[in-house]
Design goal:
- The complex is a heterodimer of chains A (719) and B (563).
- Chain A has 719 residues and is an alpha+beta fold.
- In chain A, helix 4 (142-165) runs antiparallel to helix 5 and helix 4 (142-165) packs parallel to helix 10.
- Chain B has 563 residues and is α/β, with parallel strands linked by helices.
- Chain B starts with a helix and ends with a helix.
- Classes of the chains: A alpha+beta (719), B alpha/beta (563).
- At the A-B interface, helix 4, helix 5, strand 6, helix 6 and helix 8 of A face helix 1, helix 9, helix 10, strand 9 and helix 11 of B.
- Strand 6 (205-206) of chain A pairs antiparallel with strand 14 (356-359) of chain B.
- Chain A: Pfam families: Gpi16.
Chain lengths: 719, 563
């Protein structure tokens, strides 16, 4: 037994070919997972996908198979329409066939993302529609409206530019500009343009200022005017900006990057004086907080699901989709109305469909979601909480989020926030937290704190290109060159707790600075790069941290399917520790076929071929490596390379998958049935009422009739 | 045979009664259930408003000081006199101006006030004596020999609603009171046109409604520069810092707003609500790379390229999320060390003294050079810079006046207009603005409401809810009130009502419920109704035809029997 245990290095080669009748329509997405080594049989384990409720396709009940169960997801045919995966986008271009979905990328996470991408199309479409609708909605939807009108204005202005550039312009064009401003409300009138009126007004003018005017204005106002008598306002309040990035290598080989940007402003938002002069704090957010008397505001947008089992706890948890919770100040009288308006405004600021928050998805938690800032508010009638699990997070949400940063994406850590990389990730979460905090240890005055956080998990296999190494450039396609000049502190932390001697990964450039922090009940060690120190950047004047994993094992080859051309192929080379259980889970995504592609018995299901496990198993006796030797035929088929192990191959059972089968005759049935009912009901009633009934002869007696019936049966002439 | 006949009759009756039931019950029922709800709208009143007849009345008080009237004139001069002037702007817009002049002689206190050494002091003390209501004008007529006005000045207009008019030489005036009035009236009208409204102002305000034949270039530019009338404005001051590594900027915007901008806005409060805020934008670049002019040792920005300056900045300015009022942007751009100084050149390639420019209905930009603070590379960057707000606010205030439409149109010769003081706005300037804004509001609201009525009339499928109907009615009421108040000369009320009218009309026009436009093309309607109607109507029609043909046959039979 001891020998067996230490020799237990198994090599598995799992090939999985998906074969289906007629055409390949089963979307298999293999997942890291299971193979019970002892039994050697494949187990397909049901697995609930996190964003299931957001999937508009229906969920069918799991069909029990022999070894386990599977939980397949159905997807509406239209929804999967022509969405190529990233891997084969180019190839797919040629072969795309309308309603079929091509294959999925390697891992389940990928699939999630992809699926969301697919729904994104729809989502965006609906959002566009909405916006159209919103153009005319009244004040409560002002933001959208405003955006649109701004666009319009931009157009007008562009046109204005043109007019400035052109020296001569007919009045007709000018008429057009004006018309746009007027939102084409009026009936257009044919207007007479005379050729002579070609001179165009200049739209950009230098401000001519008579000297006396400046002085007049600058002269302190007369004593008679009351507002001028007041002393000048107090000195501008202090504000402070910090930025920080934490990088944590995860056990699964993925990498977790967490950005935090913190602006603290010693301004009293809750006082009577209106806050209107902004420095580092973003004006748009500040105006919202002031207008709606918000005490605390927490908003997060998340794409993907945080896998706590694999990744541990995140620094800032957030649910998939959008989450918004707000504590209002106790001066607010109509909390529900304010909340409705606030969601509309926020949806404009963050380009998200937060305007879908209404009373049906708003709750007032009484025990959880206590204020995170100072202040012991207990009346939860000022709290509103809502989530939108369906919300798809994408670039259009990131851009306004970045705009809130004082340095934008021009300097500091925020240069790393490139949307094409951030959204090519397994998990993406961005959040804005506004809350009042203490200004000093005695907590006599309060400050407003704005924390913008962005958490992202990069997938090893899709972003790492097979190599187990990470760098800032690989993750974000950018390197750091400077700190944001407005930041009082700008630091990058790398979690090196699991790597004390550097046996797991190697971090370069090495930094002498180590710090310890207690986070989530655990003491962690971090390498620190201080971006405000020029030394951090080294001679190359840019910081590109490189993190190389040492142990490299395993091999994964995945070839996605092409609809009606080739099946999926997934091969994994695994080295298994002894006495361990490894599961490989394959999820099937169910799609609708073309209606001619269904077999005559579609309810029987569609077959998925067996998985294959090819293994080198430790042998109890020494194996004979010489193949030329004369041996019994049954023992010499597989050639033997090593003395200590023998080769074996295990096949799992084929899998029967139920695909959604449409009711092919439904519309026809409905039409027929309706017509029949109407025709029969109405027609017979009408007939009954209007027909002329005539009695030819008195009806024969009952006995005679019975006798006649019997006679008819017998074929005897009737009575 | 008889029973068969009875039975046939009964069948015919049944068919007829079904047809009757279908026509009497079925059709109205179907009609009512598929009807779209359309509340009643005051269409007649709206159509009346479509033909806008505005009458603007100004109360003018003419006060004769001692020595201007001869005794016999004094007796004969009427107490009141009304002057009317009608102007037809286009087919359905007419304007009537009505100047109601009241004549009286000055009382003792006014005489004393007019004896002050300077016109400004006289103006102040006259104001303390009696405050004239909004929209009215008081003209004091002083003798030709008075030393109150400097030489060559005939009319003085102060900060309030008073003007001082110097009487012409006695021989030119004549002795008759009619001659006197004939001499005075055109001059008073001129004063009133400066102080309350002129025809060009009013027609410019009507531009929403009436297509103007493009007049002179300047007047068009003037009319398009200022913002449209709106119930509120957002004023945003933005400090653009293109490179925080080069300089740290500090501006005392709160104090500056308090002492320079706020007095003007307080004055303008009856017109609209204003809210002010400010922000600092970092890494905000201009859209154009300024050219280095080696002769000036400075960077220059040409007037031609100004249009492209704003675009990249604009994206970051952000709109006010919390309101939908128009935003006036005032940007202060401080070029960084490597691109400074920066001067703006006008079309004649001459540097602009204020180093600022503005864009109509958008706002203004000022370039603030601080190159002398850099000290030629000796001081370590970033340099701390404190901005001189007095200089900046002077420019911004001038731009703000332009944007808000406080025009200081050139006064006619012989007029002396006292430059505006600390408040930034004279009372009569406010009146002027109120006149044109009221007319503009009325014009816009009528246009909105008539086009809404037209739209609702054209598209029968739009549901008109009760709240829209009430908004429309309140618009109409407010409009009628505003027009009436304008006729009565109550400018303050007229403005108030016109604001209400414009708010209600916009609310009605942009109501989302109007959008639930039930779009049912006719062919689809038929596709829906035919499966229901066809099986119902065919038997009815057939039996009706049968009954008719039978009746005809019977008549024929009777006729042949008769024959």
């Amino acid at each position: 037994m001891a020998a067996r245990r230490c020799l237990g290095l198994w090599f598995f080669l799992i090939t999985l070919c998906v074969v289906s009748t007629g055409a390949d329509v089963l979307h298999t997405t293999p997942v890291t997972g299971t193979e019970s080594s002892a039994a050697g049989t494949e187990t397909v384990v049901a697995r609930e996908l996190p964003e299931a409720p957001s999937d508009p396709g229906e969920h069918t009940a799991a069909e029990p198979t022999r070894e386990g169960e599977q939980n397949d997801r159905t997807r509406g045919g239209e929804q999967t329409l022509g969405q190529p995966t990233r891997e084969e986008e180019q190839e797919q271009e040629k072969t795309r066939e309308g309603e079929q979905t091509p294959a999925q990328p390697t891992r389940e996470e990928e699939e999630e993302e992809e699926e969301q991408e697919q729904t994104r199309g729809e989502e965006e479409f609906t959002r566009e529609e909405e916006e159209e609708e919103l153009t005319r909605e009244e004040e409560e939807l002002t933001t959208e409206e405003e955006e649109l009108t701004r666009e319009e204005e931009e157009q007008t202005r562009e046109e204005e530019e043109l007019t400035t550039e052109e020296e001569e312009l007919t009045t007709e064009e000018e008429e057009l500009t004006r018309e746009e401003e007027e939102q084409t409300r009026e009936e257009e009138e044919e207007q007479q343009t005379t050729a002579q009126q070609e001179e165009q007004t200049k739209r950009w003018e230098a401000t001519e200022l008579e000297e006396e005017h400046v002085h007049d204005a600058a002269v302190p106002p007369l004593a008679g005017d009351p507002p001028a008598a007041d002393p000048p306002s107090p000195p501008p309040s202090k504000d402070d900006f910090q930025e920080e990035l934490v990088i944590r290598p995860l056990h699964s080989g993925d990498i977790y990057a967490s950005f935090q940007f913190r602006t603290v402003w010693d301004a009293d938002f809750m006082g009577d004086q209106k806050v209107s002069h902004y420095r580092l704090f973003p004006k748009s957010l500040g105006q919202v907080i002031t207008k709606f008397s918000v005490r605390e505001l927490h908003i997060s947008f998340t794409q993907g699901y945080w896998r706590t089992m694999q990744w541990g706890q995140p620094y800032l948890p957030s649910p998939p989709g959008a989450e918004l919770w707000v504590w209002f100040q106790d001066t607010v009288t109509d909390v529900d109305g304010t909340w409705k308006e606030l969601t509309n405004v926020l949806s404009g600021i963050f380009c998200a469909s937060l305007n879908f928050i209404d009373s049906t998805n708003t709750v007032q938690p009484s025990a959880s979601f206590k204020p995170l800032g100072i202040g012991n508010v207990t009346d939860h009638s000022f709290l509103r909480y809502a989530t939108l699990p369906r919300e798809i997070v994408c670039t259009e949400n990131l851009t306004p989020w970045k705009k809130l940063l004082p340095c934008g994406s021009k300097a500091g850590l925020s240069v790393l926030l490139k949307s094409e990389k951030l959204f090519h990730s397994t998990f993406h979460s961005q959040a804005v937290h506004v809350r009042p905090v203490c200004q000093d240890p005695q907590c006599r005055t309060t400050s407003m704190e704005l924390r913008q956080t962005l958490n992202v998990v990069f997938d090893l296999h899709t972003s790492g290109q097979g190599k187990r190494e990470w760098s800032l450039f690989k993750m974000f396609s950018r390197t750091l060159t400077e700190a944001c000049p407005l930041a009082s502190s700008s630091k990058v932390y790398v979690d090196v707790t699991d790597n004390p001697q550097g046996e797991q990964f190697e971090l370069s450039p090495a930094t002498p600075l180590l710090t310890q922090a207690v986070v989530l009940g655990d003491r962690r060690t971090y390498s620190v790069y201080d971006l405000t120190q020029q030394a951090s950047f080294g001679s190359s004047r840019s910081l590109n941290m490189l993190l190389r994993w040492k142990a490299a094992d395993g091999y994964i080859h995945y070839q996605p399917s092409k609809d009606r051309e080739r099946p999926h192929l997934l091969e994994m080379l695994l080295q298994l520790p002894p006495n361990s259980v490894t599961e490989v889970t394959v999820e099937f995504e169910r799609a609708l076929l073309k209606w001619t592609e269904y077999t005559p018995d579609p309810n029987h299901g569609f077959y998925v071929g067996s998985s294959v496990i090819s293994a080198l198993v430790p042998s109890v006796v020494a194996m004979d490596t010489n193949s030329t030797l004369d041996r019994p035929l049954f023992s010499s088929f597989f050639p033997c390379k090593e003395e200590a192990s023998y080769f074996m191959r295990v096949y799992t059972e084929p899998l029967l998958v139920n695909l959604p089968t449409p009711d092919f005759s439904m519309p026809y049935n409905v039409i027929c049935l309706t017509c029949t009912v109407v025709a029969v009901g109405y027609g017979s009633l009408y007939n009954l009422l209007t027909r002329t009934f005539q009695v030819d002869e008195p009806s024969p007696g009952l006995a005679k009739r019975i006798a006649n019936v019997i006679r008819r049966f017998r074929g005897v002439p009737l009575l | 045979m008889a029973t068969a006949e009875v039975e046939r009759k009964r069948g015919q009756l049944a068919a007829l009664s079904i047809a009757v039931v279908v026509v009497l019950v079925g059709v109205p029922l179907w009609w009512r259930t598929t009807e779209t709800y359309r509340a009643w709208l005051p269409v007649n009143q709206i159509n009346e408003l479509a033909e806008l007849q505005l009458q603007l009345s100004v109360d003018v008080e003419v006060v004769f000081s001692r020595g201007t009237l001869m005794p016999e004139q004094q007796k004969k001069v009427p107490f009141t006199r009304t002057q009317e002037e009608a102007q037809k702007v286009d087919d359905d817009t007419t304007l009537r101006y009505r100047y109601e002049s009241k004549y009286r002689t000055a009382n003792i206190m006014e005489e004393d006030a007019l004896k002050q050494p300077t016109a400004a002091e006289a103006d102040l003390s006259l104001h303390t004596l009696s405050a004239s209501p909004c929209g009215s004008v008081v003209v004091y007529v002083i003798p030709e020999t008075s030393v109150l006005l400097p030489q060559g000045v005939d009319v003085y207009i102060g900060h309030r609603r008073t003007a001082v008019l110097r009487m012409g030489a006695p021989m030119s005036v004549g002795k008759n009171h009619k001659q006197l009035l004939a001499h005075l009236e055109p001059r008073i009208t001129q004063v009133v046109q400066v102080m309350s409204f002129s025809h060009t102002d009013i027609t410019a305000a009507l531009s929403d409604r009436v297509r103007l034949s493009p007049g002179s270039k300047e007047s068009l530019a003037d009319s398009m520069r200022s913002f449209k009338s709106s119930p509120g404005y957002e004023i945003t001051f933005s400090l653009l810092n293109p490179d925080p590594k080069s300089h740290r900027l500090d501006w005392d915007i709160e104090g500056a707003v308090h002492s320079y901008i706020q007095p003007l806005l307080t004055k303008l409060a009856p017109l609209a609500n204003f809210s002010i805020d400010s922000q600092i934008l970092y890494y905000a670049m201009l859209g154009v790379n300024p050219r280095f002019d080696s002769s000036l040792e400075a960077y220059t920005l040409n007037a031609d390229s100004l249009a492209h300056v704003i675009n990249p900045v604009e994206a970051r300015l952000g709109s006010n999320a919390a309101s939908s009022n128009p935003v006036l942007n005032f940007l202060l751009y401080v070029p960084d060390a490597h691109h400074s100084p920066l001067y703006i050149h006008d079309h004649q390639k001459q540097p602009v003294a204020s180093n600022a420019f503005h864009s109509p209905r958008w706002g203004g930009i000022m370039v603030y050079n601080v190159n002398d603070l850099y000290g030629r590379g000796e001081t370590p960057l970033p340099v701390n810079i404190n901005i001189n707000m007095e200089k900046v606010m002077g420019v911004f205030l001038a731009q703000l006046r332009l944007m808000l439409g406080v025009q200081s149109s050139p006064a006619p010769p012989g007029f002396l207009v006292e430059p505006c003081g600390g408040a930034g706005l004279a009372d009569w300037e406010l009146d002027r603005l109120m006149w044109s804004r009221t007319v503009e509001n009325v014009a816009t609201a009528t246009t909105t409401i008539t086009s809404l009525a037209q739209l609702l009339d054209q598209i029968g499928n739009i549901v008109i809810n009760d709240n829209i109907a009430s908004q429309v009615s309140s618009t109409v009421t407010s409009l009628q009130l505003a027009v009436a108040e304008l006729e009565a000369g109550n400018l303050g009320f007229a403005l108030q009502y016109s604001k209400e009218a414009i708010l209600a009309s916009e609310r009605a026009f942009f109501d989302p419920s109007l959008l639930h436009l039930l779009y049912f093309p006719d062919d689809q309607k038929f596709a829906i109704y035919i499966p229901l109607f066809l099986p119902m109507c065919v038997p009815i029609l057939l039996s009706l035809i049968k009954i008719a043909s039978e009746a005809r046959q019977r008549r024929k039979l009777k006729q042949s029997k008769k024959d």
